Amino acid sequence: MNDGRRFAGWLCVALGFAVVVLLGYGVIDPIGLSTTDAPDSLAAVLYGLLPTVLGALALFVLGLWLLKGGRRDKR
């Protein structure tokens, strides 16, 4: 497997994991959640977290795809 592809894969996995951890600790604010007005329900909070969490999930899945992509069984 290409070393650049492996490095990019591990980088994407690490960044996706880091975004979720930083979001959980409150270091970064969610993209879709406004801090000026407090949401009045749990559904509004979860809907506000959705873009950030989906972005982190996309980075993680991209990293896994990059890591897994070069291992095809050739018969």
TrEMBL record:
List the source organism.
Lysobacter daejeonensis GH1-9
Q: Where does the source fall among the domains of life?
A: Bacteria
Question: Keyword Membrane, does the record have it?
Answer: yes
- The name this protein goes by in its record: Uncharacterized protein
Transmembrane stretches in the record are 7-28, 48-67
* Key words, A-Z: Membrane, Transmembrane, Transmembrane helix
